[in-house]
Specification:
mainly alpha; 0% strand
Length: 84
């Protein structure tokens, strides 16, 4: 019986797949950020400025930084050299 090995993915295809994964991660990060913003924005006035509010604010800032970094990656493209 002859066994056919699956064709290896090209570097360009692997890169495209990685960028797609980054895009999915960015969407999830933005979803988390939106959830936390909604939680923070709907806190009663007497809790605004409290410890939980500050924690939410810090987490939102961190998620924004991560989101910005992922956006930088999403826009990248690499032309891989051919074998010959």
């Amino acid at each position: 019986m002859i066994r056919i090995m699956p064709k290896a993915k090209s570097r360009a295809d692997r890169f495209k797949e990685a960028i797609a994964n980054v895009s999915m991660a960015a969407m999830e990060i933005n979803s988390l950020k939106d959830e936390l913003e909604q939680w923070r924005d709907n806190m009663p006035e007497n809790l605004q400025g409290g410890e939980k509010y500050e924690q939410l604010d810090e987490a939102i800032s961190e998620l924004e930084e991560i989101s910005d970094a992922l956006e930088d990656v999403e826009g990248r493209d690499i032309e891989f050299p051919g074998m010959y």
